[in-house]
Amino acid sequence: MPRYALLIEYDGRPFSGWQRQASQPSVQQAIEAALARLEPRAHTIAGAGRTDAGVHARGQVAHCDMVKDWDAFRLSEALNHHLKPAPVAIRACSRVADDWHARFSATERRYLFRLLMRRAPATLEAGQVWRVMHPLDVDAMREGAAYLLGKHDFTTFRSVMCQAQSPVKTLDALDIERVEGLAGPEVQFRLRARSFLHNQVRSFVGTLERVGAGAWAPERVRDALAARERAACGPVCPPDGLYLTGVGYPVDPFSTAS
């Protein structure tokens, strides 16, 4: 059966998350239903990351196995037609080797978190950013974030529901930048690692917001990490503003996609 890689964008607000669930809408289910319109049978796709309810993606990757030998461009066009009106789009499609796997072949995941600083409620950006009503000290947040870089036991920043076998992960990058967005000043967090624990990014951002607000000293992030206790974590921020922006592979499967 020919295997295809899919580059996927979606608005996470209407979904219970990426992963298929029995009684709640999911992104995986929406794509599998569209595939069933093209080849009527049960379809199971595999995604590179299991984003939570309300989390968005600009660069999620999944793979599907088809019976027919589809032209990759026509497959993406047909899927986009049948995905309507769900806020899910196939940005690119490419034929890959039969043993290529969207999750297990990946070497890194990249996330963006957008935090909007303004008192007025977000309207056009509602659900796309986390709004806080006070200014934040970006330099202090960078100082706190520096303690998180590298290989650590991230138990403090791991959801109690996390199913990963080990809390030890390597955080390769956590860059924080203040930008002038269309809706107002934003603080943007860009993170990169081979893989992340459940709620790890939202735990980082919620904790660093406390640093930026002056409620935590930057050194408290170091102490929280060393505690290896979930109770030492700062608040977990909402999913609004979190995006899976890309997945890295030894060879980009979409480099020659139509």
UniProtKB/TrEMBL annotation:
<keyword id="KW-0413">Isomerase</keyword>
<protein>
    <recommendedName>
        <fullName>tRNA pseudouridine synthase A</fullName>
        <ecNumber>5.4.99.12</ecNumber>
    </recommendedName>
</protein>
<dbReference type="GO" id="GO:0003723">
    <property type="term" value="F:RNA binding"/>
</dbReference>
<dbReference type="GO" id="GO:0031119">
    <property type="term" value="P:tRNA pseudouridine synthesis"/>
</dbReference>
<comment type="subunit">
    <text>Homodimer.</text>
</comment>
<feature type="active site" description="Nucleophile">
    <location>
        <position position="52"/>
    </location>
</feature>
<dbReference type="GO" id="GO:0160147">
    <property type="term" value="F:tRNA pseudouridine(38-40) synthase activity"/>
</dbReference>
<dbReference type="InterPro" id="IPR020103">
    <property type="entry name" value="PsdUridine_synth_cat_dom_sf"/>
</dbReference>
<dbReference type="Pfam" id="PF01416">
    <property type="entry name" value="PseudoU_synth_1"/>
</dbReference>
<feature type="binding site">
    <location>
        <position position="111"/>
    </location>
    <ligand>
        <name>substrate</name>
    </ligand>
</feature>
<comment type="similarity">
    <text>Belongs to the tRNA pseudouridine synthase TruA family.</text>
</comment>
<dbReference type="InterPro" id="IPR020094">
    <property type="entry name" value="TruA/RsuA/RluB/E/F_N"/>
</dbReference>
<feature type="domain" description="Pseudouridine synthase I TruA alpha/beta">
    <location>
        <begin position="8"/>
        <end position="104"/>
    </location>
</feature>
<dbReference type="InterPro" id="IPR020095">
    <property type="entry name" value="PsdUridine_synth_TruA_C"/>
</dbReference>
<dbReference type="InterPro" id="IPR020097">
    <property type="entry name" value="PsdUridine_synth_TruA_a/b_dom"/>
</dbReference>
<keyword id="KW-0819">tRNA processing</keyword>
<comment type="function">
    <text>Formation of pseudouridine at positions 38, 39 and 40 in the anticodon stem and loop of transfer RNAs.</text>
</comment>
<feature type="domain" description="Pseudouridine synthase I TruA alpha/beta">
    <location>
        <begin position="145"/>
        <end position="250"/>
    </location>
</feature>
<dbReference type="InterPro" id="IPR001406">
    <property type="entry name" value="PsdUridine_synth_TruA"/>
</dbReference>
